[in-house]
Design brief:
Number of domains: 1
Helix content: 55-70%
Shape: globular
Radius of gyration: 18 Å
Distance between the termini: 36 Å
Strand content: 5-15%
Order of helices and strands: HHHHHHHHHHHHHEE
Structural class: mainly alpha
Length: about 260
């Protein structure tokens, strides 16, 4: 796989362009109110409401300048990459060496794996009465629900043919789910958890090309969906945030990292 392929995948860890890094007061006020409601419902009797009752509010919070900027940037990159979609996938899929590297991407990046992991975190927090762990688990589950709604809502009407000639290629669900999980972890725990989580999400995205299941543009837009859904369910969470912004580098594009406190 050429370095330019990795650049196409890494850029999709763009949480937002730098100009959109700050939330507007209109975004923060509803979020603070929602967090109060959610926190009060994270007890043993109210977990169902906490887990599923916020999904409607998540959908209402999803439209924002931040979401528009991230999806707009991802769309522009996907369009730019589109002419190279087939050569990139064919090159990755034809490599035996990469086949050995990306063997776990199919399973570890799947929606069932992310959902099972999220439920396990929530169950562990509930069983041990550890509120922070339970809250992270709830956000992880909500992120997967919101991601599935958006991803499938686009897949069905677009109905793009996959590289292997099956249906529903755009966007990549493995990528959206993986980047949603990474974004939730980054928002809760900062860059120490976020960087390896985003690295694994990029690995999953790359694996979709090697497995001949997706094009680079599918992965790019799927990653953006995961980023905006993860951000939406965690508005107001996290003491430390790191912002990834696009940068032009020799031979392609990449990302710059800045820590915001």
């Amino acid at each position: 796989m050429r370095p330019t392929i990795w650049s196409c995948l890494v850029i999709l860890a763009v949480v937002r362009p730098a100009v959109a890094a700050a939330q507007t007061p209109a975004d923060v006020a509803p979020a603070a109110e929602s967090l109060v409601r959610t926190s009060s419902s994270h007890d043993r009797t109210g977990w169902i409401r906490a887990l599923f009752g916020e999904v409607g509010r998540d959908l209402a919070r999803l439209p924002s300048n931040d979401t528009l900027a991230t999806l707009g940037l991802a769309s522009a990159i996907a369009v730019a990459v589109h002419p190279a979609d087939r050569p990139l996938t064919e090159g990755a899929a034809g490599s035996r060496a990469l086949g050995r590297v990306f063997t776990v991407g199919e399973v570890a990046g799947g929606g069932w794996a992310h959902t099972a992991g999220a439920v396990a975190v929530f169950a562990a927090g509930t069983a041990t009465d550890h509120g922070r762990v339970r809250d992270v688990g709830i956000d992880l589950v909500r992120a997967q629900i919101l991601t599935a709604i958006l991803t499938q809502g686009i897949k069905l009407p677009v109905n793009r043919t996959r590289p292997d000639r099956t249906r529903f290629s755009f966007p990549s669900g493995h990528s959206s789910g993986s980047f949603a999980t990474a974004t939730v972890l980054a928002r809760h725990f900062g860059w120490k958890a976020g960087l390896p989580a985003y690295g694994f999400a990029a690995y999953v995205g790359a694996s979709r090309l090697q497995e001949n299941r997706h094009f680079a543009s599918d992965v790019i837009f799927g990653a953006a969906i995961g980023i905006v859904t993860g951000r939406t369910v965690t508005i107001g969470h996290g003491d430390h945030r790191f912002v990834l912004a696009p940068a032009v580098v020799p031979g392609g594009v990449g990302v710059t990292v800045a820590l915001a406190r």
